[in-house]
Amino acid sequence: MPRPLKAIGLMSGTSLDGVDVALIETDGESVAAFGPALTFAYGEDDRALFVAALEAARTLTDRDARPGALAAAEGRLTERHAQALAAFFEQHPVHRDVSVIGFHGQTVLHRPEIRLTIQIGDGPGLARAVRAMVPPPGPNLVYDLRAADVAAGGQGAPLVPVYHRALAHGLSLAGPLLVLNLGGVANITYIDGEADPIACDTGPANALIDDFMQARTGIPLDRDGAAAAAGRVDEAALARLLTHPFFARRPPKSLDRNDFREWVTEHAGLDGMSVADGAATLTALTAACVGAVLPHLPKPPRTLIAAGGGAHNPTLLRFLRARLGVEVMTADAVGWSTDALEAQAFGFLAVRALRGLPLSFPTTTGVPRPITGGVIELPLPAA
Ligand SMILES: Nc1ncnc2c1ncn2[C@@H]1O[C@H](COP(=O)(O)OP(=O)(O)OP(=O)(O)O)[C@@H](O)[C@H]1O
Ligand SMILES: CC(=O)N[C@H]1[C@@H]2OC[C@@H](O2)[C@@H](O)[C@@H]1O[C@H](C)C(=O)O
């Protein structure tokens, strides 16, 4: 067995809330140890620039083009990642021991149906910043981890299932197990013993709730699900929303952050609802979308492990229990990390990329064969 490497994962998710940094020790097959993690929060002007970049990306067909706000956003994003790493090394001086850094970047457009997925983030630029922080030889840096899968005909997402599978090996919970990541978009990994994990995006997680709360209250989340808890779910609106053809499609399938934006504007009737009822209806939508994937799975899952920011929303967890009829636990409760799981996954994926191991599989992204990915920036040779 190869020796475990210290790997750092850097993730900027669809919520646009900050850079998650996490250290793990892994050989790319199993996890030897979890290290510390931190979130480096974006400022309001960063978030505004990234929102503008998402808009500028909407009509792109060339993944290397950076029109409008995209060029400035890519520079800012790379700078914030360098600052996040510097803050991490300041708190945890492990920089000489780190072998590899996995850099996800920020997805600004995801259109796998036309073989297009675009993550901004300057890999060589971040590698230069890392070299300025760490004495030679320094770590390898792996970036652009979705491109190879999409080029080969896969969905390019979700990529975390191979990490979920590695973590699940250490658990003794009743299976089948469903790991649910509740970021801006929700994705699941279904794990039943040694069978290949099945994965897909299920629908919105927090992005619609965040956008609704931002528009109605000026605060970009429903903290602790308080508004939703005080509201009434509009079941008729929910039923209309669930007629979207995405839900009838079998996995693998994936989403762009904004895929449901117009659909919700046209079908939810949110303008006529109170803040509480709107939040309740959108929170129920997130839970119902996970419910909508169950008929596509081989067996009903027995246990659901919720990770990502949405796992901090007790109303959402309650709706999941009620609508799915499964036991719901948080990642923290099973000894994983609710907040650092995705960043850890990109450290894990970076080690797999270094070793040439597959990142994605026919059952996770629909790629025709298991495939590795990522672009590797090698460290400078030792002086
Ligand atoms: N205490 C809380 N109560 C309610 N919602 C919360 C709470 N904490 C975080 N969230 C939600 O979680 C979101 C952030 O989740 P997370 O950091 O997992 O997303 P992400 O990694 O950016 O997204 P993705 O996984 O889609 O890439 C916030 O935007 C917010 O909606
Ligand atoms: C294209 C893209 O960036 N997709 C993200 C997004 O955020 C959640 C969901 O949609 C998931 O498919 C994916 O991220 C996770 C980390 C993944 O690839 O597993």
Automatic annotation (TrEMBL):
Annotated residues for binding of ATP: G13, T14, S15, L16, D17, G18, V19, D20
Stretches assigned to coiled coil: none
E.C. number(s) listed in UniProt: 2.7.1.170
GO biological process: 1,6-anhydro-N-acetyl-beta-muramic acid catabolic process; amino sugar metabolic process; peptidoglycan turnover
Key words, A-Z: ATP-binding, Carbohydrate metabolism, Kinase, Nucleotide-binding, Transferase
Example of a GO MF term: phosphotransferase activity, alcohol group as acceptor
ATP-binding listed as a keyword: yes
InterPro entries: Anhydro_N_Ac-Mur_kinase, ATPase_NBD
Cross-referenced HAMAP family: AnhMurNAc_kinase
Stated role: Catalyzes the specific phosphorylation of 1,6-anhydro-N-acetylmuramic acid (anhMurNAc) with the simultaneous cleavage of the 1,6-anhydro ring, generating MurNAc-6-P. Is required for the utilization of anhMurNAc either imported from the medium or derived from its own cell wall murein, and thus plays a role in cell wall recycling.
Protein name: Anhydro-N-acetylmuramic acid kinase
Annotated organism of origin: Ancylobacter dichloromethanicus
Gene field: anmK
